[in-house]
Amino acid sequence: MTALIRATDLSVSHGGDLPVLNHVDFLIRPGEIVTVVGPNGSGKSTLVRALLGHVALASGRVERAPGLRIGYVPQRVHIERAMPMTVRRFLSLPRRVGDAQAAAALERTGVPGLEARQITALSGGQFQRVLLARALLGDPQLLVLDEPTQGLDQPGIVAFYKLIEEVRAETGAAVLMVSHDLLVVMRASDRVVCLNGHVCCEGTPQAVSAAPAYRAMFGAESQGTLALYQHHHDHDHDHVAEGHRHGPACAHTH
């Protein structure tokens, strides 16, 4: 199956001697949910920006399917509180959309009828769903979500990941997520990539949960992931690929 995005031998440096990403290979195929996990400073957001073409590469290459439509939910969106902006206006940035299209997007993401609400009056969970609605307006083949549940409580996190699974089922869009929500992210992923400047290990959630590199990276936090892992997979294909050729081991860091 043709990849939507494929990175080969990708390295990124922000100046200085040590690269932020070192010889990373990555791909995402149509319809799959891939989650990138790793400690703070591991290069997760840098990988997303590199895949989207937002940062210069030190080496390697990124290939995207021709005409690939991408919906992007960034890690942070700053809304000037002094500037009034309704949800409806926000959904028409940067491209104007019709009322029916905006209403359908809000309905799909579980926040119907918010068009007249001020963006600054939304709860954290509502705002994340509005961001997702805006990302869906372009009928994306690939949804990219960078730490989409920051600031949400545990029920909100679980509900948001359930929504992502529903959106994938309804639209067929592939989903690339960056996340630190270890105890729920496994349930919403087809494949997990553990990153710490390089790819430490990758595979199905069940396989990665048991991988030594994953357990070294997250320590005690990793113990609950298998108990919560309830995703349906063809277990004949449960395998993990570990990579230790480049960079330091995936040590647990804070």
Automatic annotation (TrEMBL):
<feature type="compositionally biased region" description="Basic and acidic residues">
    <location>
        <begin position="234"/>
        <end position="245"/>
    </location>
</feature>
<keyword id="KW-0813">Transport</keyword>
<dbReference type="GO" id="GO:0006829">
    <property type="term" value="P:zinc ion transport"/>
</dbReference>
<keyword id="KW-1278">Translocase</keyword>
<keyword id="KW-0406">Ion transport</keyword>
<dbReference type="InterPro" id="IPR003593">
    <property type="entry name" value="AAA+_ATPase"/>
</dbReference>
<keyword id="KW-0864">Zinc transport</keyword>
<keyword id="KW-0862">Zinc</keyword>
<dbReference type="InterPro" id="IPR050153">
    <property type="entry name" value="Metal_Ion_Import_ABC"/>
</dbReference>
<keyword id="KW-0067">ATP-binding</keyword>
<dbReference type="InterPro" id="IPR017871">
    <property type="entry name" value="ABC_transporter-like_CS"/>
</dbReference>
<dbReference type="GO" id="GO:0010043">
    <property type="term" value="P:response to zinc ion"/>
</dbReference>
<feature type="domain" description="ABC transporter">
    <location>
        <begin position="5"/>
        <end position="221"/>
    </location>
</feature>
<feature type="region of interest" description="Disordered">
    <location>
        <begin position="234"/>
        <end position="254"/>
    </location>
</feature>
<keyword id="KW-1003">Cell membrane</keyword>
<dbReference type="InterPro" id="IPR003439">
    <property type="entry name" value="ABC_transporter-like_ATP-bd"/>
</dbReference>
<protein>
    <submittedName>
        <fullName>Zinc transport system ATP-binding protein</fullName>
    </submittedName>
</protein>
<dbReference type="Pfam" id="PF00005">
    <property type="entry name" value="ABC_tran"/>
</dbReference>
<keyword id="KW-0547">Nucleotide-binding</keyword>
<keyword id="KW-0472">Membrane</keyword>
<dbReference type="GO" id="GO:0016887">
    <property type="term" value="F:ATP hydrolysis activity"/>
</dbReference>
<dbReference type="InterPro" id="IPR027417">
    <property type="entry name" value="P-loop_NTPase"/>
</dbReference>
<dbReference type="GO" id="GO:0005524">
    <property type="term" value="F:ATP binding"/>
</dbReference>
